[in-house]
Amino acid sequence: MADTIIFQSKPAREAPIKTEGLVPWVKTNLFANWQSTVTTLVVGALLLYYVPQFINWAILTATTTTNADACRADGVGACWGVVKEKYRLIIFGRYPFEEQWRPLVATLLMVGLLVASCTRYFWSKWLIIGWVVVLSAFFILMYGSLFGYFDVFGLTKVTTDRWGGLPLTIMLATLSIVLCFPVAICVALGRRSNLPAIRTFCTIYVELIRGVPLISVLFMASFMFPLFMPQGVTVDVLIRVVVGVTLFAAAYMAEVIRGGLQAMPKGQTEAAASLGLSYWQTQFKIILPQALAMVVPGIMNNFIGLFKDTSLVYIVSLYELTGSLGLALNSDADWRPYKLEGYLFIVSIYFVFCFAMSRYSLWIEKQLNKSKLR
Asked: Which H, E and C letters describe 129-190, residue by residue?
């Protein structure tokens, strides 16, 4: 007689825990344990206390009138009239008032080029030509001539010491980022070179630059470098500042890239050698693409820091965005008490650019991680 098979139902399993959505995110990030819960409650209490006061000051009782006396009335909060009155001087610095359409167009071209460079659709050989054309147009519009000798479209020449505000900030950051990246790659490879002379030179360069603040580098480039030039030979202060900022940023970037190179498994290099690839073929086709992908957050962090460090060129009398604000308010005693509103205005500009860079960094990371999900 065959054995009788008796089927017994198993108890129902618990429903899977939901890991997506607002409630799971709040539980994971704000109330995961008692330490996180206490921190969340303390920070929340502070926000509940200060945020309504800030909103009342910045919005509800604020005024946008351009009359400084009206801002001093009782019960008036933030005086945004200072931004309304001085925004052109803050944005464009000491650039001639009647010619300020030129830095406006130049800045829009530069920002458009940066957006195109960050868009996959425009990644082609034509993008290189676009960089050449836009950079040439930028300096022609800002300076008014080509290479300082040929007048273009009858534009009035405006020397670099009168450039300032947002156009100068974007130009300094863009050129420094573009120029420092290849230098950083060469220095990072040099620090891992088997040739003692190259390795020593790159190590000295990195340690020397990282051992001094950027202000010292700018001071040397602006005031000390001309003393070593032959008599009668001068280099524009803007060029010296760009070179100084580039060399400073390249030293820090090189260490980030070197970290990615050291994280690469040795088997990658050995596999390339077994295929008969040369040193440069190995580096540019196998090692560097993977190493740079590992350190995208560190690279973008340096780029964001470099964008904000452009405010230090004020020490060499180049009035970028922060310097232009000081120039606009310090020269007018009526609006001098409202520096806080002015600084909040330029903080919002810095935040927009830095936040966009951080979001783009996350997008790059997601694109690079797709290959790991296969």
From this structure: HHHHHHHHHHHHHHHCEECCCEECCCCCCCCHHHCEHHHHHHHHHHHHHHHHHHHHHHHHHH
3-state SS assignment for residue 63: strand
Q: Which of 355, 220, 245, 244 shows the shortest CA–CA distance to 310?
A: 245
The structure tokens listed for 207 are: 């340690």
What does the alpha-carbon distance between residue 299 and residue 314 come to, in Å, rounded to a whole number?
25
d(CA 291, CA 263): 7
What are the angstrom distances between the C-alpha of 28 and each of 15, 46, 352?
A: 18, 21, 28
Q: What is the DSSP letter of 331?
A: T
Give the global pTM. 0.84
Strands (E), the chain: 145-146, 150-151, 164, 319-320
From CA 347, how far away is CA 315, in angstroms rounded? 20
- DSSP H or E segment with residue 290: helix 288-294
Handedness of CA 313, 317, 318, 323 (dihedral sign): positive
90, 167 in Cβ contact below 8 A? no
Helix (H) or strand (E) holding 372: none
CA–CA distance, 281 with 300 (Å, rounded to integer): 26
CA 113 to chain centre: 15
pLDDT means per 10 residues in the chain (374 residues)?
67 71 80 88 93 90 84 83 89 90 93 91 88 91 71 79 90 93 93 90 92 88 78 82 92 92 87 86 88 90 92 86 87 84 92 93 84 62
CB 61 within 8 A of CB 76: yes
For residue 234, what is the enclosing H or E element? none
Rounded-to-integer distance, Cα 335 and Cα 206, Å: 44
State whether residue 79 is helix, strand or coil: strand
Residue count of the chain = 374
- Give the separation between CA 99 and CA 136, rounded to whole angstroms: 18
Q: Which residue is associated with the tokens 């009206």?
A: 70
Provide the token pair at 115: 């957006």
